[in-house]
Amino acid sequence: GAVVSQHPSWVICKSGTSVKIECRSLDFQATTMFWYRQFPKQSLMLMATSNEGSKATYEQGVEKDKFLINHASLTLSTLTVTSAHPEDSSFYICSARDVRLLPFFGQGTRLTVV
Amino acid sequence: GIQVEQSPPDLILQEGANSTLRCNFSDSVNNLQWFHQNPWGQLINLFYIPSGTKQNGRLSATTVATERYSLLYISSSQTTDSGVYFCACQPLGGAGSYQLTFGKGTKLSVIP
Fold this sequence. Notes:
The complex is a heterodimer.
Chain A: E1 4-7, E2 10-13, E3 19-25, E4 32-38, E5 44-51, E6 57-58, E7 67-73, E8 76-81, E9 90-97, E10 103-105, E11 109-113
Chain B: E1 4-7, E2 10-14, E3 19-25, E4 29-37, E5 43-48, E6 52-56, E7 59-64, E8 69-74, E9 83-91, E10 101-102, E11 106-111
Parallel strand pairs in B: 2-11
Antiparallel strand pairs in B: 1-3, 3-8, 4-5, 4-9, 6-7, 7-8, 9-10, 9-11
């Protein structure tokens, strides 16, 4: 099946710094990728839909200036958490949609802001 | 948007027992998937099953689209089955129709 690689798997950063998370579709092209956030013991909540070559569509309540999404190519989308604070600590997961419109998920990134 | 409800929220099983997890959804779906999230957070797709029945080893799933529910069966459970099982739905048509909406999951603990 299709493979989606997410990097890094975990990151610890200081409050006020920015962190970039990469999501790559390794063996297929993905015109659309999705970014989810998961708090401990909770479900996955969609943050934004990332479309190649255009601006991301953010879900209600997600700050677009804080969570910058760039989908510069058909195989790469990045999520940058800017000026991170402890409340941004969470598990972030991306998914990419293949030609059959099936979503495949990355391994997730555990972000801890100290 | 579509509502996805899973039950039970928690389930404890003795190794070797069978279980049934349920997913109810509020609207017609284009896609329904069952996932297992392992302790490291990785989501593993178990079934793509917008309708009908599928089986894969000890796991099987049935979706009755007309009645808007899906069931995941786990037989002869093993400790490695422990984790959180999510049902996720992609609504049929309309805005955001390619987005998956996740239920809150069922946390399964299989004890030896």
